[in-house]
Amino acid sequence: MTALPAQPLSPLDGRYQAAVSDLGEHLSEAGLNRARVQVEVEWLLYLTSHSMFGSSPLTGEQVESLRGLYLEFGQADIDWLAEKETVTRHDVKAVEYLVRDRLASLGLDSIAELTHFACTSEDINNLSYALTVSAAVQTVWLPKLQTVIGLLRSLAVEHRADAMLARTHGQPATPTTMGRELAVVAWRLERIAAQVAGTEYLGKFSGATGTFAAHVVADPSADWPRISQEFVESLGLTWNPLTTQIESHDWQAELYNRVSHANRVLHNLATDIWTYISMGYFRQIPQAGATGSSTMPHKINPIRFENAEANLELSSAVLDSLAATLVTSRLQRDLTDSTTQRNIGVGFGHSLLALDNLARGLGEIDLDRAALADDLDSNWEILGEAIQTVIRAEVVAGRSSISDPYAMLKELTRGKRIGRDDLVAFVEKLDIGDEAKGRLLELTPARYVGLSDELVNRLP
User: Fold this and answer.
1) Annotation says 116 is catalytic
2) What is the DSSP string of 229-248?
Protein backbone atom coordinates (compact mmCIF):
# COMPACT_ATOMS: atom_id res chain seq x y z
CA MET A 1 0.00 0.00 0.00
CA THR A 2 1.45 3.36 -1.03
CA ALA A 3 1.59 6.21 1.44
CA LEU A 4 -0.83 9.07 0.95
CA PRO A 5 0.44 12.60 0.42
CA ALA A 6 0.09 14.86 3.47
CA GLN A 7 -3.57 15.01 4.48
CA PRO A 8 -5.53 17.30 6.84
CA LEU A 9 -6.54 15.61 10.08
CA SER A 10 -9.48 17.89 10.73
CA PRO A 11 -12.51 17.71 8.42
CA LEU A 12 -12.69 21.49 8.80
CA ASP A 13 -9.53 21.67 6.70
CA GLY A 14 -10.69 18.90 4.37
CA ARG A 15 -14.26 17.95 3.57
CA TYR A 16 -15.81 21.11 5.04
CA GLN A 17 -13.10 23.61 4.21
CA ALA A 18 -15.24 25.63 1.82
CA ALA A 19 -17.89 26.27 4.49
CA VAL A 20 -15.44 27.58 7.09
CA SER A 21 -12.64 29.11 5.00
CA ASP A 22 -13.54 32.68 6.00
CA LEU A 23 -12.46 31.89 9.56
CA GLY A 24 -9.00 30.99 8.30
CA GLU A 25 -8.45 34.62 7.44
CA HIS A 26 -8.32 35.31 11.16
CA LEU A 27 -8.07 32.17 13.30
CA SER A 28 -5.30 30.36 11.43
CA GLU A 29 -1.59 30.40 12.24
CA ALA A 30 -1.08 32.77 9.31
CA GLY A 31 -3.86 35.04 10.57
CA LEU A 32 -2.29 35.08 14.02
CA ASN A 33 1.16 35.89 12.61
CA ARG A 34 -0.23 38.72 10.53
CA ALA A 35 -1.80 40.18 13.68
CA ARG A 36 1.51 39.78 15.49
CA VAL A 37 3.25 41.76 12.76
CA GLN A 38 0.49 44.38 13.08
CA VAL A 39 1.07 44.77 16.83
CA GLU A 40 4.86 44.94 16.43
CA VAL A 41 4.57 47.55 13.67
CA GLU A 42 1.99 49.66 15.50
CA TRP A 43 4.15 49.65 18.65
CA LEU A 44 7.09 50.88 16.55
CA LEU A 45 4.90 53.61 15.12
CA TYR A 46 3.64 54.61 18.57
CA LEU A 47 7.17 54.91 19.95
CA THR A 48 8.47 56.92 17.01
CA SER A 49 5.40 59.15 16.75
CA HIS A 50 5.99 60.12 20.38
CA SER A 51 9.74 60.61 19.77
CA MET A 52 10.56 58.18 22.55
CA PHE A 53 14.21 57.43 23.33
CA GLY A 54 15.40 60.06 20.88
CA SER A 55 13.55 58.65 17.87
CA SER A 56 11.80 60.89 15.36
CA PRO A 57 8.34 60.58 13.81
CA LEU A 58 8.42 58.77 10.48
CA THR A 59 7.30 60.34 7.23
CA GLY A 60 3.91 59.51 5.81
CA GLU A 61 5.55 57.34 3.19
CA GLN A 62 7.56 55.46 5.81
CA VAL A 63 4.46 54.89 7.92
CA GLU A 64 2.61 53.56 4.90
CA SER A 65 5.52 51.24 4.05
CA LEU A 66 5.67 49.91 7.60
CA ARG A 67 1.94 49.25 7.76
CA GLY A 68 2.29 47.46 4.46
CA LEU A 69 4.12 44.73 6.37
CA TYR A 70 0.82 43.52 7.76
CA LEU A 71 -1.64 44.99 5.27
CA GLU A 72 0.14 43.13 2.47
CA PHE A 73 1.16 40.12 4.54
CA GLY A 74 1.14 37.05 2.29
CA GLN A 75 2.61 33.70 1.36
CA ALA A 76 6.19 34.94 1.13
CA ASP A 77 5.98 36.17 4.74
CA ILE A 78 4.31 32.94 5.85
CA ASP A 79 7.14 30.92 4.32
CA TRP A 80 9.82 33.24 5.76
CA LEU A 81 8.40 32.85 9.26
CA ALA A 82 8.11 29.07 8.96
CA GLU A 83 11.76 28.80 7.97
CA LYS A 84 12.92 31.21 10.67
CA GLU A 85 10.97 29.39 13.37
CA THR A 86 12.84 26.17 12.61
CA VAL A 87 15.89 28.06 13.91
CA THR A 88 14.40 30.20 16.70
CA ARG A 89 12.03 27.51 17.98
CA HIS A 90 9.97 30.51 19.07
CA ASP A 91 7.08 31.87 17.04
CA VAL A 92 7.01 35.44 18.35
CA LYS A 93 10.79 35.79 18.09
CA ALA A 94 10.51 34.78 14.44
CA VAL A 95 7.98 37.59 13.94
CA GLU A 96 10.35 40.06 15.59
CA TYR A 97 13.13 38.97 13.24
CA LEU A 98 10.82 39.36 10.25
CA VAL A 99 10.03 42.95 11.23
CA ARG A 100 13.71 43.71 11.76
CA ASP A 101 14.53 42.20 8.38
CA ARG A 102 11.89 44.32 6.66
CA LEU A 103 13.08 47.44 8.48
CA ALA A 104 16.50 46.91 6.96
CA SER A 105 15.02 46.58 3.47
CA LEU A 106 13.07 49.82 4.03
CA GLY A 107 16.19 51.69 5.18
CA LEU A 108 14.87 52.04 8.73
CA ASP A 109 17.70 50.28 10.56
CA SER A 110 17.98 53.23 12.92
CA ILE A 111 14.79 52.22 14.73
CA ALA A 112 15.42 48.47 14.67
CA GLU A 113 16.10 48.33 18.42
CA LEU A 114 12.63 49.69 19.09
CA THR A 115 11.21 46.50 17.59
CA HIS A 116 9.58 44.45 20.37
CA PHE A 117 10.79 47.11 22.82
CA ALA A 118 10.21 46.13 26.48
CA CYS A 119 7.78 43.45 25.31
CA THR A 120 7.32 39.93 26.50
CA SER A 121 5.95 37.54 23.88
CA GLU A 122 2.59 37.58 25.61
CA ASP A 123 2.30 41.34 25.13
CA ILE A 124 2.24 40.63 21.42
CA ASN A 125 0.23 37.42 21.60
CA ASN A 126 -2.64 38.58 23.78
CA LEU A 127 -3.27 41.62 21.59
CA SER A 128 -3.00 39.51 18.45
CA TYR A 129 -5.52 36.97 19.71
CA ALA A 130 -7.89 39.75 20.74
CA LEU A 131 -7.63 41.26 17.26
CA THR A 132 -8.10 37.98 15.39
CA VAL A 133 -10.91 36.63 17.57
CA SER A 134 -12.71 39.97 17.44
CA ALA A 135 -12.46 40.07 13.64
CA ALA A 136 -13.58 36.44 13.28
CA VAL A 137 -16.60 36.94 15.54
CA GLN A 138 -17.70 40.27 14.11
CA THR A 139 -17.11 39.61 10.41
CA VAL A 140 -17.72 35.86 10.08
CA TRP A 141 -19.44 34.03 12.95
CA LEU A 142 -21.91 36.68 14.12
CA PRO A 143 -23.17 37.53 10.60
CA LYS A 144 -23.82 33.81 9.98
CA LEU A 145 -25.73 33.57 13.25
CA GLN A 146 -27.76 36.62 12.21
CA THR A 147 -28.51 34.90 8.90
CA VAL A 148 -30.04 31.96 10.77
CA ILE A 149 -31.95 34.31 13.08
CA GLY A 150 -33.24 36.16 10.02
CA LEU A 151 -34.49 32.91 8.49
CA LEU A 152 -36.21 31.99 11.75
CA ARG A 153 -37.85 35.42 11.90
CA SER A 154 -39.14 35.06 8.34
CA LEU A 155 -40.51 31.59 9.03
CA ALA A 156 -42.04 32.80 12.30
CA VAL A 157 -43.92 35.55 10.51
CA GLU A 158 -44.94 33.27 7.65
CA HIS A 159 -46.32 30.59 9.98
CA ARG A 160 -47.52 32.80 12.82
CA ALA A 161 -51.13 31.65 12.40
CA ASP A 162 -50.47 28.00 11.49
CA ALA A 163 -51.91 26.15 14.49
CA MET A 164 -50.17 23.00 15.62
CA LEU A 165 -50.48 20.60 18.50
CA ALA A 166 -47.91 21.25 21.19
CA ARG A 167 -46.25 18.33 22.92
CA THR A 168 -45.11 18.80 26.48
CA HIS A 169 -43.27 15.72 27.73
CA GLY A 170 -43.86 14.39 24.22
CA GLN A 171 -47.62 14.19 24.88
CA PRO A 172 -50.46 16.15 23.23
CA ALA A 173 -50.75 19.55 24.91
CA THR A 174 -52.34 22.98 24.51
CA PRO A 175 -51.86 24.03 20.86
CA THR A 176 -49.51 26.74 19.68
CA THR A 177 -48.52 27.92 16.21
CA MET A 178 -45.43 26.93 14.29
CA GLY A 179 -44.56 30.59 13.87
CA ARG A 180 -44.64 31.28 17.59
CA GLU A 181 -42.42 28.27 18.31
CA LEU A 182 -39.82 29.50 15.83
CA ALA A 183 -40.14 33.01 17.25
CA VAL A 184 -39.20 31.64 20.69
CA VAL A 185 -35.91 30.34 19.28
CA ALA A 186 -35.24 33.56 17.36
CA TRP A 187 -35.86 35.59 20.54
CA ARG A 188 -33.41 33.45 22.53
CA LEU A 189 -30.74 33.74 19.86
CA GLU A 190 -31.22 37.50 19.49
CA ARG A 191 -30.39 37.97 23.18
CA ILE A 192 -27.26 35.87 22.95
CA ALA A 193 -26.20 37.57 19.71
CA ALA A 194 -26.48 40.95 21.44
CA GLN A 195 -24.33 39.68 24.30
CA VAL A 196 -21.71 38.37 21.88
CA ALA A 197 -21.77 41.63 19.93
CA GLY A 198 -21.12 43.49 23.18
CA THR A 199 -18.02 41.44 24.04
CA GLU A 200 -15.17 43.39 25.60
CA TYR A 201 -11.89 42.35 23.98
CA LEU A 202 -9.22 43.04 26.60
CA GLY A 203 -5.52 43.54 26.11
CA LYS A 204 -2.46 43.99 28.31
CA PHE A 205 0.87 45.56 27.44
CA SER A 206 2.92 45.67 30.62
CA GLY A 207 5.97 43.48 30.25
CA ALA A 208 7.37 40.24 31.59
CA THR A 209 5.26 39.99 34.75
CA GLY A 210 2.82 42.84 34.23
CA THR A 211 4.78 45.34 36.34
CA PHE A 212 6.32 47.65 33.69
CA ALA A 213 9.68 46.86 35.33
CA ALA A 214 11.84 47.07 32.19
CA HIS A 215 9.90 50.10 30.99
CA VAL A 216 10.56 52.07 34.17
CA VAL A 217 14.27 51.26 34.10
CA ALA A 218 14.49 52.37 30.47
CA ASP A 219 12.66 55.67 31.16
CA PRO A 220 11.66 56.40 34.77
CA SER A 221 9.96 59.65 33.77
CA ALA A 222 7.43 58.14 31.36
CA ASP A 223 3.86 57.45 32.41
CA TRP A 224 3.93 53.82 31.28
CA PRO A 225 0.41 52.82 32.34
CA ARG A 226 -0.96 55.75 30.31
CA ILE A 227 1.22 54.78 27.34
CA SER A 228 0.10 51.17 27.61
CA GLN A 229 -3.56 52.17 27.76
CA GLU A 230 -3.23 54.52 24.79
CA PHE A 231 -1.53 51.86 22.72
CA VAL A 232 -3.98 49.07 23.54
CA GLU A 233 -6.96 51.33 22.89
CA SER A 234 -5.44 52.52 19.60
CA LEU A 235 -5.87 48.93 18.39
CA GLY A 236 -9.58 49.06 19.19
CA LEU A 237 -9.25 46.94 22.33
CA THR A 238 -10.04 47.51 26.00
CA TRP A 239 -7.04 47.98 28.31
CA ASN A 240 -6.54 45.57 31.18
CA PRO A 241 -4.41 47.34 33.82
CA LEU A 242 -3.87 44.44 36.22
CA THR A 243 -2.38 41.21 34.92
CA THR A 244 0.49 38.79 35.39
CA GLN A 245 2.67 38.05 32.36
CA ILE A 246 -0.47 37.08 30.50
CA GLU A 247 -3.78 38.80 29.95
CA SER A 248 -6.08 36.78 32.20
CA HIS A 249 -8.32 35.50 29.37
CA ASP A 250 -11.52 36.22 31.27
CA TRP A 251 -13.01 37.94 28.23
CA GLN A 252 -12.30 34.80 26.23
CA ALA A 253 -14.05 32.60 28.78
CA GLU A 254 -17.06 34.94 28.72
CA LEU A 255 -17.19 34.94 24.92
CA TYR A 256 -16.78 31.19 24.49
CA ASN A 257 -19.44 30.51 27.10
CA ARG A 258 -21.84 32.76 25.18
CA VAL A 259 -21.06 31.11 21.86
CA SER A 260 -21.46 27.70 23.48
CA HIS A 261 -24.81 28.86 24.87
CA ALA A 262 -25.86 29.86 21.35
CA ASN A 263 -24.71 26.44 20.15
CA ARG A 264 -26.99 24.71 22.62
CA VAL A 265 -30.02 26.79 21.64
CA LEU A 266 -29.24 25.98 18.00
CA HIS A 267 -28.86 22.31 18.94
CA ASN A 268 -32.36 22.44 20.45
CA LEU A 269 -33.60 23.98 17.19
CA ALA A 270 -31.93 21.27 15.10
CA THR A 271 -33.42 18.42 17.12
CA ASP A 272 -36.90 20.00 17.15
CA ILE A 273 -36.94 20.60 13.38
CA TRP A 274 -35.69 17.03 12.89
CA THR A 275 -38.58 15.83 15.04
CA TYR A 276 -41.13 17.95 13.17
CA ILE A 277 -39.85 16.46 9.91
CA SER A 278 -40.19 12.97 11.40
CA MET A 279 -43.75 13.79 12.48
CA GLY A 280 -44.63 15.05 9.00
CA TYR A 281 -45.11 18.67 10.03
CA PHE A 282 -42.39 19.76 7.64
CA ARG A 283 -41.80 18.31 4.19
CA GLN A 284 -38.25 18.37 2.87
CA ILE A 285 -37.92 19.94 -0.55
CA PRO A 286 -36.05 17.56 -2.89
CA GLN A 287 -32.75 18.96 -4.14
CA ALA A 288 -31.83 18.18 -7.74
CA GLY A 289 -29.31 15.35 -7.97
CA ALA A 290 -29.26 14.68 -4.23
CA THR A 291 -29.45 11.13 -2.82
CA GLY A 292 -31.03 10.38 0.53
CA SER A 293 -30.15 6.72 0.90
CA SER A 294 -27.75 4.49 -1.03
CA THR A 295 -30.40 1.77 -1.18
CA MET A 296 -33.80 3.40 -0.51
CA PRO A 297 -34.47 5.84 -3.36
CA HIS A 298 -37.57 7.38 -1.76
CA LYS A 299 -35.72 8.88 1.19
CA ILE A 300 -34.85 12.50 1.86
CA ASN A 301 -32.82 12.41 5.04
CA PRO A 302 -32.72 15.49 7.31
CA ILE A 303 -28.92 15.56 7.07
CA ARG A 304 -28.59 19.34 7.42
CA PHE A 305 -30.05 19.22 10.90
CA GLU A 306 -28.16 16.06 11.86
CA ASN A 307 -24.88 17.56 10.67
CA ALA A 308 -25.62 20.75 12.57
CA GLU A 309 -26.45 18.81 15.73
CA ALA A 310 -23.13 16.93 15.70
CA ASN A 311 -21.02 19.98 14.87
CA LEU A 312 -22.66 22.06 17.60
CA GLU A 313 -21.75 19.37 20.11
CA LEU A 314 -18.13 19.36 18.91
CA SER A 315 -17.97 23.15 18.98
CA SER A 316 -19.28 23.38 22.53
CA ALA A 317 -16.90 20.66 23.68
CA VAL A 318 -13.93 22.71 22.43
CA LEU A 319 -15.23 26.10 23.56
CA ASP A 320 -16.25 24.80 26.99
CA SER A 321 -12.76 23.39 27.43
CA LEU A 322 -11.19 26.70 26.39
CA ALA A 323 -13.41 28.67 28.76
CA ALA A 324 -12.58 26.35 31.63
CA THR A 325 -8.82 26.13 31.14
CA LEU A 326 -7.78 29.56 29.86
CA VAL A 327 -8.70 31.33 33.08
CA THR A 328 -6.07 29.37 35.01
CA SER A 329 -2.32 29.96 34.78
CA ARG A 330 0.22 28.73 37.31
CA LEU A 331 1.69 31.59 39.30
CA GLN A 332 2.68 34.38 36.90
CA ARG A 333 2.56 32.28 33.72
CA ASP A 334 2.53 28.80 32.27
CA LEU A 335 2.34 27.80 28.63
CA THR A 336 -0.87 25.77 28.61
CA ASP A 337 -2.81 28.60 26.99
CA SER A 338 -0.42 28.63 24.01
CA THR A 339 -1.60 25.24 22.80
CA THR A 340 -5.25 25.63 23.77
CA GLN A 341 -5.67 29.00 22.05
CA ARG A 342 -4.56 27.45 18.77
CA ASN A 343 -7.86 25.54 18.86
CA ILE A 344 -10.06 28.65 18.98
CA GLY A 345 -10.61 28.30 15.24
CA VAL A 346 -11.66 24.68 15.70
CA GLY A 347 -14.37 25.67 18.17
CA PHE A 348 -15.70 28.45 15.97
CA GLY A 349 -15.26 26.34 12.83
CA HIS A 350 -17.61 23.58 13.97
CA SER A 351 -20.16 26.19 15.07
CA LEU A 352 -19.90 28.02 11.74
CA LEU A 353 -20.32 24.74 9.86
CA ALA A 354 -23.44 24.02 11.91
CA LEU A 355 -24.84 27.48 11.17
CA ASP A 356 -24.22 26.92 7.47
CA ASN A 357 -26.12 23.63 7.60
CA LEU A 358 -28.98 25.15 9.58
CA ALA A 359 -29.30 28.02 7.11
CA ARG A 360 -29.42 25.56 4.22
CA GLY A 361 -31.77 23.22 6.02
CA LEU A 362 -34.25 25.94 6.97
CA GLY A 363 -34.39 26.91 3.32
CA GLU A 364 -35.20 23.35 2.24
CA ILE A 365 -38.35 22.65 4.28
CA ASP A 366 -42.01 23.38 3.65
CA LEU A 367 -44.80 23.32 6.22
CA ASP A 368 -47.46 20.65 5.69
CA ARG A 369 -50.54 22.43 6.99
CA ALA A 370 -52.75 19.39 6.35
CA ALA A 371 -50.57 17.28 8.65
CA LEU A 372 -50.85 19.90 11.39
CA ALA A 373 -54.63 20.06 10.97
CA ASP A 374 -55.01 16.26 11.07
CA ASP A 375 -52.97 16.05 14.26
CA LEU A 376 -55.07 18.71 15.92
CA ASP A 377 -58.33 17.10 14.84
CA SER A 378 -57.22 13.80 16.36
CA ASN A 379 -56.70 15.31 19.81
CA TRP A 380 -59.85 17.06 20.97
CA GLU A 381 -59.13 15.96 24.51
CA ILE A 382 -56.58 18.77 24.82
CA LEU A 383 -59.56 21.14 25.18
CA GLY A 384 -60.06 19.71 28.66
CA GLU A 385 -57.80 22.46 29.99
CA ALA A 386 -59.96 25.16 28.42
CA ILE A 387 -63.23 23.66 29.64
CA GLN A 388 -62.17 23.18 33.27
CA THR A 389 -60.67 26.69 33.35
CA VAL A 390 -63.91 28.24 32.07
CA ILE A 391 -65.96 26.25 34.59
CA ARG A 392 -63.76 27.49 37.44
CA ALA A 393 -64.24 31.08 36.26
CA GLU A 394 -68.01 30.51 36.13
CA VAL A 395 -68.00 29.09 39.67
CA VAL A 396 -66.17 32.15 40.99
CA ALA A 397 -68.59 34.42 39.12
CA GLY A 398 -71.56 32.63 40.74
CA ARG A 399 -72.86 31.19 37.48
CA SER A 400 -72.04 27.57 38.29
CA SER A 401 -72.14 25.27 41.30
CA ILE A 402 -69.90 22.55 39.84
CA SER A 403 -67.40 21.24 42.39
CA ASP A 404 -63.85 20.26 41.38
CA PRO A 405 -64.07 20.88 37.61
CA TYR A 406 -60.48 19.69 37.17
CA ALA A 407 -61.37 16.23 38.47
CA MET A 408 -64.44 16.19 36.25
CA LEU A 409 -62.38 16.85 33.12
CA LYS A 410 -59.66 14.49 34.26
CA GLU A 411 -62.22 11.71 34.44
CA LEU A 412 -63.46 12.58 30.95
CA THR A 413 -60.15 13.00 29.15
CA ARG A 414 -57.09 11.58 30.92
CA GLY A 415 -55.48 8.85 28.85
CA LYS A 416 -58.40 8.82 26.44
CA ARG A 417 -59.06 9.88 22.88
CA ILE A 418 -62.34 11.75 22.55
CA GLY A 419 -63.77 13.58 19.57
CA ARG A 420 -65.71 16.73 18.84
CA ASP A 421 -69.11 15.09 19.38
CA ASP A 422 -68.07 13.84 22.82
CA LEU A 423 -66.98 17.29 23.95
CA VAL A 424 -70.02 19.02 22.49
CA ALA A 425 -72.32 16.64 24.34
CA PHE A 426 -70.36 17.19 27.55
CA VAL A 427 -70.36 21.00 27.28
CA GLU A 428 -74.06 21.20 26.45
CA LYS A 429 -74.88 19.53 29.79
CA LEU A 430 -72.65 21.82 31.86
CA ASP A 431 -74.10 24.02 34.55
CA ILE A 432 -72.50 27.26 33.33
CA GLY A 433 -73.66 30.54 31.82
CA ASP A 434 -74.89 30.63 28.23
CA GLU A 435 -72.15 33.01 27.04
CA ALA A 436 -69.39 30.79 28.40
CA LYS A 437 -71.08 27.71 27.02
CA GLY A 438 -71.29 29.32 23.60
CA ARG A 439 -67.56 30.10 23.65
CA LEU A 440 -66.73 26.52 24.50
CA LEU A 441 -69.00 25.10 21.83
CA GLU A 442 -67.26 27.22 19.20
CA LEU A 443 -63.80 26.17 20.38
CA THR A 444 -61.72 23.72 18.33
CA PRO A 445 -58.14 22.52 18.82
CA ALA A 446 -57.04 24.69 15.88
CA ARG A 447 -58.58 27.79 17.49
CA TYR A 448 -57.16 27.09 20.94
CA VAL A 449 -53.87 28.92 20.38
CA GLY A 450 -54.30 31.93 22.68
CA LEU A 451 -52.20 34.90 21.61
CA SER A 452 -49.70 32.88 19.57
CA ASP A 453 -50.12 35.01 16.45
CA GLU A 454 -49.82 38.28 18.35
CA LEU A 455 -46.79 37.11 20.35
CA VAL A 456 -44.73 36.87 17.16
CA ASN A 457 -44.82 40.69 17.13
CA ARG A 458 -42.64 40.63 20.23
CA LEU A 459 -39.61 39.82 18.11
CA PRO A 460 -37.32 42.87 17.98
Assistant:
1) no
2) HHHHHHTT-EE--S-SSS--
